[in-house]
Amino acid sequence: MSAYLTFKGLTQGPSGVRLEADGVAQPGAGPPMHVHYLQEEAARVVRGRLGYQVLWRPATVRRSGRTRCLAGGHARTSGGMRGATSCT
Questions:
Q1: pTM for the predicted model, two decimal places
Q2: CA of 31: how far to CAs of 11, 14, 24, 72, in Å?
Q3: β-sheet bridge partners, residue 6
Q4: What DSSP string runs through the chain?
């Protein structure tokens, strides 16, 4: 299983500074359950599907063209689903 994340740089967003990155994950790959205490996290699925789960909630899937946004302070994980996954 493999996944990678390429950090693209900082940009000014509507609510503050954003760190932008591109990522790709093979099926079953992705980070362990983790928390961003002070930051929101968003991912736009460019190709394939992205599975993610917030602690104590059912797993959810986002498909190409969809965006996933999570508020800070919640434990979450995400990763590749069957087929290539590409997020930005």
A1: 0.70
A2: 24, 27, 12, 16
A3: 22
A4: --EEEEEEEEEEETTEEEEEEEEEE-BT--PPSB--SS--EEEEEEESEEEEEETTS--EEEETT-EEEE-TT--EEEEE-SS-EEE-
Express each pLDDT in 9-18 by its tens digit: 999 988 888 8
**pLDDT computed for residue 1 by the predictor:** 60
Decide: 86 and 25 in contact? Cβ < 8 Å.
no
What token pair was written down for 21?
């990155």
Contact 35, 55 (CB under 8 A): no
Could you read off the pLDDT of 14-47 as tens digits, one per residue? 888 888 888 888 877 888 889 999 888 888 888 8
The dihedral through the CA atoms of 7, 9, 10, 14 has a sign that is: negative
